[in-house]
Amino acid sequence: MGKWGYVGMLAFTVAGSFWLEVVFKVRVLKRITRALRAIAPIVLLFLIWDAVAIKHGDWFFDSKQILGIFGPFHIPLEEYLFFLVVPLAAIMTIEAVRRVKRDKSDWLIGDEE
Questions:
Q1: Contact 39, 111 (CB under 8 A)
Q2: Which helix H or strand E contains 55, and what residues bound it?
Q3: What is the per-residue pLDDT across 34-72, written as a single tens digit (0 to 9) for each?
Q4: Which range of residues forms the domain containing residue 81?
């Protein structure tokens, strides 16, 4: 897969979960601002962690498996996308389970219509 290795993993994650948005109408992307507010604090912590680990040489990204596009703190684009795609996929999965769960009383979170 070469330089597309990390992007391929992200594409696999998107293919494996984003269909739930359409099939089960989980409405995560429709409420994207809400989802982004939910994941932003954790994303910030992990980006700081990545930046510190990269700076100290404790963490690196294999240049053979990334595109070579870097954002702030020398963090690859794929890592930024990872911190967006994976949490959204997880939220979609949870919302799909909530949608099909028979005993919905166990899965109420207060935003039901």
A1: no
A2: helix 32-55
A3: 999 999 999 999 999 999 999 999 999 999 999 999 999
A4: 2-100
